[in-house]
């Protein structure tokens, strides 16, 4: 009887391993390359240095600040009161800019957000918005092993207020930057909803007030916030809107991972079938030889 021949092929196993490692390295390389690609696109329409916007003067305008405070407090009291009664407040560009300068919730917007005009169709706002730029290794004193140099989006946006999920946000309709530079479509999709009051959703004062609003509308020269009895706020702001840009990277990584797993699985399946076929062929040969 001839010695048994093994049906296992070491070459097939090595090939599967090499191809699987190659796919994995490609995925890691893609994940490492993508932030640099995004940074290169952002650099085309942003600046390396900020151009801070004017902040409405509070000193010398105490009377206006007090009057605005009284109106806002009256509106908040109405919102907390009988839900069957309407509540409404009208805010001009000057009111909004003064509120940003005078009150704590506006602190994060000072020097980066200024309302120029309100039309019946849009809030026209100058911005100097800080973004994360090209990744780099952190220097001494900086947080984490990896950081990034800041970039600044300087321009004028047109948008409208948006209500949903107990929050007042800003939907960006268009964005103009100096020099006529073109803002990438992918960035605009990510930038389409600005959660300027996100940090105050759980605030004990501002949070409940936002949660009871049912309308946020524009009229010539004013932003109108109101609660209409019997109305519920439209749920137009979802997590998917805010994760749209970042989710794109996850989407492509997920697709790559699926391709990798499908390829590796196919190779393993083909290898096993070939091994089984060779085993069956070997057994047939042995049976025939022993007959």
UniProtKB/TrEMBL annotation:
Keywords: Membrane, Transmembrane, Transmembrane helix
Membrane-crossing residue ranges in chain numbering: 12-36, 252-272
Protein known as: SURF1-like protein
